[in-house]
């Protein structure tokens, strides 16, 4: 059962050992800067490669509460989620140890001319479907209702077979008092992927993730055929995206990106799903479970 929890109990790791594994969090070992802080590459004593996320810890956060939140994240196990292997909460440090995914982020793939060539249409479809399944699991299938709140291509990592895995899920909860559907005054996240109700009113729900998913699908679809789009237009796309999308100019954008190329029906299908997801009215957006049904009914037709 791929949806069964993997980690029943999360190993607590020792700070000195983690420092050694990451060479004291040296810049040479730094993979990059994630939404919640720097990410380092390390190697555990048993030889496993890991990614260590170093989160800023706020002094007001109670240790017990953090522990139980992290335990909850660790209980989430799905093939489309990056697996949490352990954590360390010592002194001011809050370190989360994840499986290492050698292919890095989807963002890195779409932005790299050479890597992007490895993403043929079938591969892209598989990535879209995998993200949808991971998100559905977070929203509904796990016993907890997790809203990601910062879903974007740099938070989607690819394994050696280019299967997508969502990362940073549950982290928004570590920094928020209101934990479920609700309002927040500190709007955090990435503007281009943010739905209007969140950007303007700070309201979030599973439908906020649905919106971000729609933007990701458009990026995956367009990345393929438009070469330098991500480089030359990234400010445009990330900056005022939702205004852009909701005014209907996304049709123009799609037209510019896809041109008169022959467009496969699966591509049209994905664009259609994406447009449903980025509607302004949250009630009009589909749930992730209908998205998964729409995507898989297509796969069945193919067979
Ligand atoms: O595209 P990247 O190489 O993949 O650069 C970013 C960077 O850290 C900041 O998020 C990389 N990264 C994050 N988590 C992991 C992981 N579990 N395995 C491999 N790379 C990771 C991400």
Automatic annotation (TrEMBL):
<feature type="domain" description="Protein kinase">
    <location>
        <begin position="25"/>
        <end position="299"/>
    </location>
</feature>
<protein>
    <recommendedName>
        <fullName>non-specific serine/threonine protein kinase</fullName>
    </recommendedName>
</protein>
């Amino acid at each position: 059962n791929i949806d069964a929890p993997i980690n029943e109990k999360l190993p607590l790791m020792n700070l000195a050992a983690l420092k050694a594994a990451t060479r004291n969090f040296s810049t040479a070992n730094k993979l990059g800067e994630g939404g919640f802080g720097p990410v380092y590459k390390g190697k555990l004593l048993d030889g496993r490669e890991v990614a260590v996320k170093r989160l800023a810890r706020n002094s007001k956060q109670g240790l017990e509460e953090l522990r139980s939140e992290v335990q909850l994240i660790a209980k989430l196990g799905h093939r489309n989620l990056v697996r949490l292997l352990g954590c360390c909460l010592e002194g001011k440090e809050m370190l989360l140890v994840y499986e290492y995914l050698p292919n890095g982020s989807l963002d890195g793939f779409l932005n790299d001319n050479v890597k992007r060539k490895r993403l043929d249409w079938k591969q892209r479809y598989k990535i879209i479907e995998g993200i949808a399944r991971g998100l559905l699991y977070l929203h509904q299938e796990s016993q907890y209702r997790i809203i990601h709140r910062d879903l974007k291509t740099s938070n989607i990592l690819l394994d050696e077979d280019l299967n997508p895995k969502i990362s940073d899920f549950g982290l928004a909860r570590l920094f928020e008092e209101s934990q479920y559907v609700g309002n927040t005054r500190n709007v955090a996240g990435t503007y281009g992927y943010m739905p209007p109700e969140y950007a303007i009113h700070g309201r979030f729900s599973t439908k906020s993730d649905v919106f971000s998913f729609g933007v990701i699908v458009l990026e995956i679809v367009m990345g393929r055929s438009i070469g330098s789009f991500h480089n030359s237009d990234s400010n445009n796309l990330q900056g005022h995206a939702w205004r852009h999308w909701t005014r209907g100019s996304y049709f123009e954008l799609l037209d510019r990106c896809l041109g008169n190329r022959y467009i496969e029906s699966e591509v049209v299908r994905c664009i259609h799903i994406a447009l449903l997801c980025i509607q302004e009215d949250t009630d009009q957006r589909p749930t992730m479970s209908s998205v998964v049904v729409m995507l898989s009914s297509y796969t069945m037709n193919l067979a």
